[in-house]
Amino acid sequence: MTDTPKVRLRGLYKIFGSNDKDMMQYVRAGMGKPELLEQHKHVLGLQDINVDMMAGEITVVMGLSGSGKSTLIRHLNRLIDPTAGEIIVDGIDVMGLSDDALRKMRQEKMSMVFQKFALLPHRTVLQNAAMALEIQGVDEATRTAEGMKWLARVGLDGYEHHYPAQLSGGMQQRVGIARALTANTDIMLMDEAFSALDPLIRTDMQNLLLELQAELHKTVVFITHDLDEALKLADHLVILKDGAVIQQGEPQGILMNPSDPYIEDFVSDINRARVLRVKSVMEPLTGSKFAGDVDIRDNLESLIARSEGDTSLHYRVMDGDVPVGELHMRDLVKALVPRISSAA
């Protein structure tokens, strides 16, 4: 992992309508989405997006319906072209690519997992999983071996000769993930990939993604409208509203320090004990007597159970075998109380 972004978006705008270029003057002058639609019959999809997506991390883009999150992800592989701005992937301006170079980038650098699975019903699970390699012209033996490997990795060993209609929704989405992994791309784009699944299956898929990510270190761009899912998966969280970035950063930091009334309202109903981690509320190590050791990645809910609610206790925080801080239960209790929205 390096300090150079894998994907860099700079000054990205998207206006939907026949005269999108002409509308930029109004948007740059401060006209918002409702006014642009009412006065000029154009839709402001994205507004001055500046985001760095680091190699080996999961960047989650979230927001309510109409916030622009799916529009944003479709710019990365130029399924949608921007009205203005830069899309830089591995230091290359995607907007400058020829048709052949763009096609090559889509095949070899980016893979996509869709909300509605997007499997071909007349092809077997294995044929669907190996499709990207088939498009790339890889020989049948190699693509079959790769498809089988990743189907087994996502828990579908033995289902390779089934058809999509014979699988549950969760199993179909596992095929979609196996297909993206078989493509062996650096970047995985996941647009509401788990939104169509039942809650328990959705949790299983989230856990599978985190397990695979710990092993493979892909650059994942994940779109969701669910804050719990975003906080669970994200290394870097980007929150959109009306096509603009309202806040971005490390998820725990956003939860602890929302920068806008919109974000405050967004996070107010979250189960903070379940989502917040020890690292978010710990202090520098100064003491020498502790009630015990806790892991820096533990959630606060587990620590509440361990302490049996005794707010006088404090613990030494460990990162593996290394002491990195301490946590006082009184600070934990304070962290459970969300900030009162200034809009209230």
Description of the structure:
By secondary structure, this protein is an alpha/beta fold. The chain has helices at residues 20-28, 33-40, 69-76, 99-108, 125-129, 131-135, 140-153, 169-182, 199-216, 227-233, 251-256, 261-267, 272-275, 278-281, 300-307, 329-335; strands at residues 5-16, 43-54, 58-62, 84-89, 92-93, 110-113, 187-191, 219-224, 236-241, 244-249, 293-295, 314-319, 322-328. The strands form three sheets. It has a six-stranded mixed sheet, sandwiched between helices. A four-stranded antiparallel sheet has the order 2-1-4-5, with helices on both faces. Strands 11-12-13 form a three-stranded mixed sheet. α7 (140-153) packs across α8. The two termini are 42 Å apart.
Q: What percent of residues are in strands?
A: 15-25%
Low-confidence stretches: none
Quantity of strands, as a count: 13
Order the strands across the largest sheet as they lie in space.
6-7-8-3-9-10
**Helix content percent band:** 25-40%
Q: Structural class, from secondary structure content?
A: alpha/beta
Overall, the morphology is: globular
Q: How would you sum up the major sheet?
A: 6 strands, mixed
Given the structure, what is the number of helices? 16
Radius of gyration: 22 Å
Pattern of helices and strands: EHHEEHEEHEHHHHEHEHEEHHHHEHEEH
Mean pLDDT: 91
End-to-end distance, in Å?
42 Å
